[in-house]
Structure formats: structure tokens, C-alpha cells
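Researcher: Going back to the complex we discussed earlier. I've cleaned up the inputs and rechecked each line, so this should be the final set. Can you rerun the prediction on the complete assembly and write out the structure?
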Amino acid sequence: MITAGVDIGSKTVKVVIVKDGKILSKVIMPGGRKKDEVADQAFNEALEKANVKREDVLKIVSTGAGKKKALYAKDDISEVGADAKGVLFYFPNVRTVIDVGAEEGRGVKCDATGKVLDFVINEKCGAGAGSFTEAMSRALEVKLEDMGQMSLTSHGAVPMNAQCAVFAESEVISLIHKKIPKEDIIKAVHDAIAARITSMIRTIGVEQDVCMVGGLSLNVGFVKSMKDALGVDLLIPEDPEFIGALGAALAAQG
Amino acid sequence: MIEEKFKTQPFKVFGKAKELRQGFYQSYATAKDEGKLTTTGSIMSFRPVIAGLGDFVHLGGEPYGAVVGADPIMSQQFTEETESRGYARDMCGYMRNYLGSMFLNKYAFGGPFKKPSFVFHVHFCEHHGKWYQIVKETLGVPVKVIDFPVGPPDDGRQESREDYLYNQLQESIPWMEKVTGIKYDDEKLIKALKNYFMNESLWGEIILLNRNRPAPIDIKTLYAFQIPGTLFPHEQRCVDFQKELLDEMKYRVKEGIAAVPVERARLMHDNQPPWYFLDLFRYMEQHGAVVVISHYVLFLGGTVNEKPDGSFERQPTPMEMGMKMTNRDEALRALVKWSLRRHSWRVGISNLADEKKDLEVKLAKDWHIDGAVMHFNRGCEMIASNEKEVRLALMAAGYPVVTYEGNMADRREFDEGQTMRRITAFMESMNLKKIA
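Model: Rerun complete. Updated structure for the full complex:
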């Protein structure tokens, strides 16, 4: 049985095609403003990569904030549900999922079947999501993709006082003027986000194994900050940004 | 498997409830012109005591604030006016709506904001403590405040609480006579109190019937029917309405007439609802999930008695319990005892976490719920306190819980999209798909 999952997030659209429990293809594209068109393009590209025709796909399930934009999807699933299913594909023993995306952070507790037992979402504060690192990379004039490695080279602790991502930018500029090394500032930013996410996750409880997904899990510096804050090891799947789409495709399999 | 479908029908009393509500707010606007007394203050402020002065119309701050809150455009206008005068945005949502209406001299139902004869109020939270001080300073009206002593009834201090409350109520009567020039009539007090006790007992009994499966009434309809009991619980017309509603509820239970045709899950809602978005409940009903109980709908205008096994039963009135009310002293004593023992009210405002957790779990059990939806309501610090502990207690008792954030009376603090995503995820986690 061939199924597809499409995850329309705030910044990107991801598509995963699955056959009998095996991943055939994955595609990611910047979302842009016309997400329904991008969703269509991404799906077509995924079909081509998988060497599969559209009519061979039995069911398509969508997820993500823009899930209704996937007009070809027959059903949709919540992001928390998709996260749980997607993660268990890689790590069947995971019971807590942390998903930190561009604009939202989520925590999900699940059982061995992927049933969501509890969840928590931060969709109100940018200081607990990936957009905070984007804003800081601009303030520091550092490429976003370099921030992770740079923070691992930090040797000094710099407490961030600002609670808000907007005010943190001004604080970062002050730190730059004080000639604080950039790697120390970047680590402070990662630690600040990790503190917020950890505080949120603790409201649903941390049960091992714990897995982290979403775009920010590609940032090795942030992953270290999260491990330090949570005090547990974190499993990171390959291509963590595709977990939602994978979960949707698996949900389509029934 | 064929899903069971229950028969439904609209409530016969619905039109009457609407008429009573509309009529009430119009009556406040015209009361003074008709020579009637008008007062304002909390709806918890022992209003039946005012009845000794004769006919009066009391503009309860909370329901008025809620009615304004249900209209986001009006609410924004009123709250922004309040905030522009330096009052903090995190103040009680009802309060900001009410004060804005007063500051702008705009009554929500048309015309100017009418100045009441006096304020008759009760202090049960810090915002209420400030609220009517501002009304006094702005409108120049006399204010009488009753300080409400709340605490566990078995801590050895109940008798002194009763005396404290009784003395304040006694003192309020000559004060009212002085500010109005009206001679107080104890017979009117006694009649008003009997109606009041009966209404509170009736409302509790109505809500108790929702323990039946299928639930005869949904929460949105309960909120609509709650209105007479919150606006004029001391009046005979409220007793008549409640009796009619109770009879209809009993009929619905007997005939198996449900609130919704498909009842897959029974839910509890905690805290005030977002008054501008009661469609939240209709959305859940589209998944077969019906909200059957809320602590808020119980304590506002009703009371029940807790049995030793932790379940609930009808609370008999003081008259049924043999309390005499032949004079002012006996009547006020009955009111004091009734008010201080009102369990859900006392727990709601005392904010002792253990008591609140205990009550909520007991309500969940007795109403046979399958899950809870909690409004982390920024509009009311008092009722929102200990909500995290309540959530943990419900989860420890085995109930799945979802929380959403908002403000009962200020639409600016509510994100519909985000809330609906959470509710949808919760429906999904309970295996509740939209009914085709």
C-alpha cells in the first residue's frame, strides 16, 4: 500500500511517500505565500523521486498549521498525532517527543502504539522557537547554519536576561559591543530557548526515551543545550524535519 | 457497528429565558424613570437583602461584563477606554468591560449608562475590592461593601464567620434606609430570601440531572438558562422559570431526549467560557463530545449537597430543613448559614488548592466524564488560581485533559486558530472523529 503525508508548516512544506512501511521519497520546499501551489509541487516532486504515479497513492493525509492547503489530501491529522507516529517509526521506545519548529514548540507524550496521552504547545512566544535563532543570527551577522558548531566552541557562560526575543536582540547587540565572543552569545541564546522548552515539557512530564524533532534539532549546539537542560539523552532521527509528514503518511496506512 | 443516535428537541423554555434576559437589561435602563430603585455590585452581593426596600433592579457587574465580552467590538472599545485611563490590562475582564461602559457613558443595550441609587457589593477578590470604589469615585454613589469571610467549615471558626457576616448584613439595613429614605420591610426580605433559596436549590437540581446519559442539556444551553438565576434570583418569576425548566429536564431524562444526537464522550469544562466564542462547545459536539458539567455553571446561582461518598444530591432549602424565618434576625441568620455552606461557591473563592482539586475530581466522577477541557483564563485570577493543580489532579484520576488560553471577556487575548488546533488534537487523542 502506498500512502503519502504532507506537512505544511509555517516556513516549509514537506512530503513523504511510504510503501508498506518503507519510505520511498522525501521532499522539502520553502512554503512561500501560496502554500497550496507549493504543496502541489512538492507532492509531484516526491512522486517523481519515488517513481510512483499519483493514482497509485491510495491515501494522502496532511498535517501542520497549513494542513487545509493540501487540497488533494483526503484526511488530516494533528501535528502532535503526526509527531508521535513519525517518531515511533525510528524509535519504538520513545515516549516523549519534543518538536521545535520555526514558530512553535511542542511536547508530546505517547504510548507504544503512538496514541497521544498528553501534549503541550507553545505557540505564543517566539523566544521558545526557531525564529528566535533566526533573529539572533541576523543580529550577530552569523549564518544560521553555522550557529550550532560555533556554540559548541563556547567556553564562557553568558546569562541572557531578556525574556522576550525582541528585547533579546537589543541585549545581543550590547553583548557584541562589550566584545563578548560570538560563540558565547550563541550558546546563551541556545540555552535560553532550551530553558523555555524544558519548562514547557516538564508540564507533561519527561518519560524516556526522549526524541527531538523539528528544524531546530538540526542545530547541534541547541541539541547540547537541550540535553543539558533536560538532563537526559536525546534521540534525533535522520531528517528530523520530515517526522510530521512521515507520521501523516503512516496514519494514512491505517 | 451502528452508532446510537438519541432523539433531540429544542427546549420549550428557551424563548422564555431569552425574553427574561432581554427584559431585565431593558428594565435597568428604564427603572429609575419608573420610580424603581436601581443598584449595582457583584451578583454575589446578598441582593435579596435589598428587597426589603421594595422593587429594585440590580445591575450585576459580572453578567454585564460577560454580555459586553460576548461582543468583541464593543468590548474592545470599553476595555481600551478603561486601559487608556491607566488601569492595567491584566485586571478582571468583566471589570474592564463594565468600567469602560461607565466611563464612556454607554450602556451596552442602548442609551447612557444609568447611575444607580447605590452600590451593594461583596468583597471576594481583590479586583472586586477596587471595582466599585472606582464606580463610587466616578459616579458619586454611596457604596456598601460586605466583607465575605470564607474558610473551611470545620476549622473551628465558622461561628465567628457567621457572626461577622450577620452583623454586617444587619448594619447594612439602616444604612440602606438612610441613603434611600425608604422604610425597610422585613416581610419583603423574607419573601425574597425564600425565593432566593428555592432558586439556588432548583438550579443545583437542574444541573444534577445532567448526570444522566444521554445528557439532557449541553453547556451552552445551560449558560443561557443560567441567566435568570444570576440576574434576579430573589424574584418569583425566576422561581417560576426554574420550576418549568426542572420539569422539562425531568421529562427529557424520562423520555431519553438528549442535548446532542450522538454522545460519544462526556466532558467537563473548567473556568468561565470565552463568552465571545461559545461555538467552541458546538465544535466539540460535532465530534460527539458534549460538555455536561462545569464548576462555574454550578457555583454561579446554584448549590448542591455533597454526600459522604463524595457524590452530590439536591440541597434542601432552609425552609425544608426547618429553619424559621419569621423575622429579620431569623431571615438573616438563614442567609448567613446558607451562604457560608455553599460548597462550590466557598471552594471557588477560597482558593485552597486541595479543596478545589477534591471538588473537581468529585464532579468529574459524579457526572461520569471522559475528559476535561480547561480554560486557562487570564480574565479572572480568582477562579483561575490552582488551575494547574486541578489539571494534575484530574490527570492523576485518569481523565485526559486539554488546556487552552484566553480571557473570558476580552477577545484580544484569545487565538481562535491556535485554540481550535489544540481542541482538534484533543478530539483526535480521544479517538473522536467528526461525525459525518
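Model: Worth noting: The longest strand of chain B covers residues 371-377.
Researcher: Good, that matches what I expected from the previous run.
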